[in-house]
Amino acid sequence: MKRFGIGAHIAAASIGVAALALAIVAIGVQRVGGAEFEQLMVQHGASVAAARDMFQSSVTLVLLAAVGAAICTTLFLAAWLARWMSRPLMRVSEAAARLAAGQYDMRLRGSGPREVQSLARSFNQLASELEQQERVRQEFIENAAHELRTPLTNLQGYLEALRDGVIAPGSDVFTSLHE
Question: What average pLDDT does this structure show over 167-175?
Fold first, then answer.
């Protein structure tokens, strides 16, 4: 199932609000404005039917123009807002992918809305902790390798000496090798 992005959600919410506002205005204009217009036109000699037709055609045209303008404006503003909000989130997403790939020195600038700045600070703290843990891990591996090399080199020397007959095999040699 495909999920819609933040832009689609903002656009849908904005269009819903605009549609509700236009519906309220349209109902108000039809109820209040229609009766007033009809009364004025009848006072000036027009028939009730002609006054209603004139009002309906005028109001319908204006309301359709208002709906079109509201939808265009809403879509433009929703696209702009979605881009403004998602751009810093995409930077965080890209930085997280680089961090996951082992680039532990990755840091974010704290720009954008306050919430994104907070997210950037948390991300940077996480990156610092991971970088520190990686340093400790590398040091441990280097130390362990060094500590293992010394006794292994010692064992290898004794074994070569035994093989070459430089030292005689005996319980004291085997005890030393065992330790």
Answer: 80
Residue 105 makes CB contacts below 8 A (sequence gap 6+) with 127, 131
Phi and psi angles of residue 36, each rounded to the nearest 5 degrees, phi first: -65, -45
Question: What is the spatial distance between Cα 121 and Cα 170, in angstroms, rounded to a whole number?
Answer: 65
Question: Whose CA is closest to 166, among 155, 158, 174?
Answer: 158
CB contact at 8 A, 59 and 30 = yes
- Pick from 167, 93, 144: nearest CA to 123: 93
| pLDDT for position 137 | 93
Q: Are the CB atoms for 92 and 119 separated by under 8 Å?
A: yes
Confidence of residue 138 (pLDDT cuts 50, 70, 90): very high
Q: Quick check: is 63 in a domain?
A: yes
Side-chain-facing half-sphere of 81: CA atoms under 13 Å: 15
Give yes or no: residues 10 and 94 share one domain: yes
CA–CA separation, 168 vs 158, rounded Å?
A: 10
Q: What residues make up the domain containing 159? A: 138-178
Res. 1 pLDDT band, cuts 50 70 90 = low
Retrieve residue 52's tokens.
């209603």
Tokens, residue 170: 């005996």
